[in-house]
Amino acid sequence: MLNGLTENERHVKDWLATQRDAMLLLLSELVNTDSGSYDKAGVDAAGEVLKRYFTAEGLALETIPQPRYGDQIRAMLDHQKSNDRRPIILMGHRDTVFPKGEPQRRPFRIENGRGYGPGVCDMKAGLVMNAFVLAALKRFGGHPGPVVALITSDEEIASPSSRPVIEAQARAARAVFNAEPSRLGRKITSGRKGGVFSRCEVTGKAAHSGANFKDGISAIEQLARKIPELHKITDLERGTTVNVGLIGGGQTVNTVAPSAWCEIDLRYVKPKDRDDAVTAIRKIAETCSVPGATSSFTIKGEFLPLEQTPEAKALFDLYHAAAADAGFSVSAEFTGGCADSGFTAAQGCPTLCSVGPVGGKAHTPDEFLEVDTMVPCAQALALSVMRLKEGVLPPG
Amino acid sequence: MSLPSFDTKTMLDGLRRWVEIESPTDVPEAVNRMMDAVEAAYREAGARLERVPGRDGRGDHLIARSSSGNAEPGILVLSHLDTVHPIGFIERLPFRIEGDIAFGPGICDMKGGVYIAYEAFRRFLAGQKSPLPITHLIVSDEETGSTTSRELIEREGKRAKYVLVTEACRDGGRVVTARKGVGQFEMHIRGVASHSGSRPQDGRSAVRELAHQILELESMNDTKTGVSVTVGVVRGGTRPNVVPEEAYAEIDMRLPTLALAEELIPKVLSAKSHRDGVRVSVAGGLNRPPYEKTPTIAALFAHAQKLAAEIGIDLHDVSTGGGSDGNFTAPFVPTLDGLGVEGQGAHTDQERILISSLAPRATLLFRLMETLR
Question: Does A251 sit within 8 Å of B233, measured CB to CB?
């Protein structure tokens, strides 16, 4: 042992320290590969960028094809001698929220120590980190069992095709590290809210606002009656919030609106709060008070909450110590933002979220990555994986 | 009384030629082709012509005057030749005749009305005597609110003693003696954006405020006074997981009287936010003033009713919520509207007229021109 690290650990840590430029090169290629959630070809092209890296590093690959969204990819590093065959999963998504053409408009660039470009921290930097950690372990070993990099394709739209894959993987896994960005001040995530994303559509009847006003049924009026009711479900103390984030409706100024719609974002903390809130939303969305108006309600997507279990706390302690050995101090905080980590935690798999390189302003053109955190974060993650031996986590 | 003869077959042929020149408001060169045809017809009839060049993406307006150099206030016949149907709509709604019905884009709203006014007016251009000078103003943009013609309509209206509007008549051949005023507004709301998951307490939802504003606007609807409010278009927000910073609405208000307009419009314009950190701003106002049935308008209608009876029409009048260019003149000149042809399905692919209404309606216009003094 040198500086408290095993020889394997030191090799892995030192090699990762030499990979800064290689990481940024791969990151640049990945950011410049357009991969909005609904662009299957683009998301798959981003997958190819990573597959080429894994293949060059001699790692086995598995592709889980998807007809509509991007394929899921598993890069696998086996460990023949381990008794615990459950893999440690390094998870990340490669889709972004941005419209097609965004990398052409805003290609990857580095300025004053910050990297910019669509998806740079959310979460292409995290994927690059995972890839290099897997490559380091392939080169130098020291991992306590199989390690899998799971690369998903549709997290930004609530993982419609990835969720079953993630859940199946999580059920068979020892632990999951999710590479969402850590926040400024070296903060990772202790817990996340659950979210239910839904849409309400209202149908009325068109009529000329002047000549035939009385024949009309205003879908906009009906929608306006629902919105304050929906907001009343919000209970900040409980952590339950409802946001009617998007609305639209109507045809022209002088036509009674035949249709209107809204999209509703529900967040909650405790799993048991979900059903009550969804029932309340559904009732408001489906009930009409304007005579003749009708409406429908659809759940479009959902994330489960991430709760800090004793195993997750132990995983955090392990990571905290590894981070110290990589030269930085880390803390954890609760966030209302949702992520795939809720799905793995709900399967009973110890999960640590937001271990990716530090970034911020995700989903905006100002999204940035603290470039100098790439290597230390990769080192902390690699050390955590290497130390995840049997008995480290309390039995679930 | 010498009733002129209006030959239905000849008028239908002439009207067909006009219907087959498509003239959507937003295609000024097409509207101008239509104006060219009318200008040529009036030139041949001997009218003094004035063509007012179009602007702001709209076509030209046309004024045809009787040759008498008389400067005294006369009769203003008010028409428009733009249609709501886009170019090519004629493929879907070709001019065709089925019994007493003729179909075609704009045939009812309002090429039929323009055509019978031309037929009546040309008799006076050919020597028939009228007590008052006659002016026919044909505008290019009524269907989008007459924004480029309003000044011209008001100027000509103020010079006139009577205004006759050739919009199609209502069900049962009714003419129009009152129209509601039209107020139009845009409401912009600005709140504070925040992430709905991580920072919901920091946000101030513009959408939530808009919902309150809509409910207040809707509460101004009053079946007793006839005030109606329509929030026709809304939009707001950027993504479902962002507390919306902005929301927007387009509002249409119908106001039967100027008194109600003066009471209610300031209320709409001064809408207040219900929450700190959220701003509400409203722009707009009275787009077309109310057209109220004043005693002088009632007298003008009574005169028309008498003339109609002479030619076998039992004429009634009606008040409507739809605006027309008559709204611009009615506040200061006795205005009679709905003097065009009988028809149905305006703005639809079933737009049509009753062929048998062409001659009597042309005769009524002729008689108004001949007798108003």
Answer: yes
